Amino acid sequence: MGPSALDQIAAMIQSCRSNQEIKISRGGAILRINFRLDDLNLWGESAEVLPSANIILACDNDTAEIEESNLTWVVGAAIRGINLANPDQAIALLIKLGIEENIATEIIDVCPGLCKEVRWAFYRERHGWLCASPALNREQLNKVYGGGDGSN
Fold it and tell me: How far lies 44's CA from each of 9, 41, 68, 138, in Å?
């Protein structure tokens, strides 16, 4: 059995510690995996408010069905949660929310534990890129940062 999802996330954080992100480009579309501690704390807090959700989304509204929304940036967004059975459902949802298929499919390879042991948050950043951050609880966050506060 390979490393756990949290071990994989810890390794990803270690590999990009200086810039706290990983960027993947596919045909002009970009996926940014965000590991900035402030953002990880924000998404962890959002996940606490949405305990039954394994996917957290920044949507442009909170009145329509999630599938009828658009993914947007965090400031002013409706933070919504959904529980999906598998990563393929997450990809299909991101495509419905306006993300290009060629970049949405990348989440399978770069979001360890997706729809299983780790909650993930998805949003757009100001350039329109798809962004993903693990929405970790305090215990998980301490584990991926080696038991520290993430500043080392």
Answer: 14, 5, 25, 7
Q: What does the alpha-carbon distance between residue 81 and residue 126 come to, in Å, rounded to a whole number?
A: 21
Distance of CA 59 to the CA centre of its chain: 13
Per-position b or e across 53-68, b if 16+ CB within 10 A of its CB: bbbbbbbbeeeeebee
pLDDT in tens, 72-124: 988 778 999 999 999 999 999 999 999 999 999 999 999 999 999 999 999 99
The CA-CA-CA angle for residues 119, 33, 131, to 5°, reads 80
Tens of pLDDT, residue by residue over 12-70, are 999 998 899 999 999 889 999 999 999 999 999 999 999 999 999 999 999 999 999 99
